[in-house]
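[job 4471] stage=fold_predict status=RUNNING
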Amino acid sequence: MITNRKRWLAALVCVPALVVGCSNSGTAEVTPSPSPADTPAARSAQAPSSAAAEQPAATAEESPVDRLPSVSTPANPEGLTIPQVVGTYEVARHPVAVTFDQTGGQLLVSHRFEGSMGSYDPASGQQFATTIVGRSPRDIAVSPDGALAYVAISGDAAVAVVDLASGELVETVAVGARPTSVAVSSDGATLFVTNSVDNTLSAVNLAVGAVGWTAQVGERPGKVAVDPVSGAVWVVDTSGGAISVVDPEARAAVSTIEVGGNPAGLAFHPDGGLAYVANAAEATVSVVDTGTLEVTNTIPVEDGPSAIVVDANASLVHVQTLNSLRVIDAASGTVVGLVPIGPGLTDMTIDPASGTLYVTSTDGEGVGRVAVLAR
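[job 4471] inference complete, writing structure tokens
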């Protein structure tokens, strides 16, 4: 009986698809079953597990990273701490833009087809308030004191002003056609708004609630940001492949910086020395010296980069692509990490104190989600 059992095991082990090691005679050496004291469970209780080291490499079908368009995971020679997805939760439908409110410690999300702005607990996704703001809301900015939110209302050629304590709509300010992005001056006195159809920048005097002046910028302006040191207003000219630099004192564009094709995202390093521009068409990030207004480096990132934020505490630049996050080492200007998130990504924001990232997405059914990434 024992002999027959050995022959059956030998035949099974020597099936071509399952060969582990067979002798020339067609028989296999069968390893006896381990004693209870020598089982994997017992060994793991006695010593640190080496299972991870013994696992075979994941196949292309098994690895979520390999399902992305990117061909490989970037090297991280400096051993930088790359953020990872630590949780996800649902929010209201069709989220298109997100901003972290540092004062209130909440996420502000615009829901495009619902015509609303929602405020959420960043950790749990619990919704605090919903404010109807107008047709097709887009970008959101928060006043320096954290009291008010400003929402670009693309469908109404206006900006909605929301009281964050009460969640109520305070007023609506008329601007140019199809406003897309908003940014507040450091003193909180002026709101800058890009108007994508007019090719203009509106400067809203917030004390009186009306446009104070308008500057002509490049073709199809999108993202706007204020240089934290000089106060200059940078506008992404999406169709022009450039940045228009507007001097608020001159009330006009005074410089143009050529970057890559279809620039989308724009972010300053908090010290004001560098700016980063995500170029969707060329799948690159342009690094711009804010003093000389010259591009000092062009970093390939792949897969249609859009939103971009800087984590100054970790010396990292985070770039949202089609369905993942590319992480750039700010010191070396190289991509050091790739974090899969999922399809339908729409925007990204950061809690500058902790470095926690919040990435919004929507699926084909319009379901809204936020992915939370922490280092």
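[job 4471] summary: Residues 8 and 27 are 10 Å apart (CA to CA).
[job 4471] exit 0
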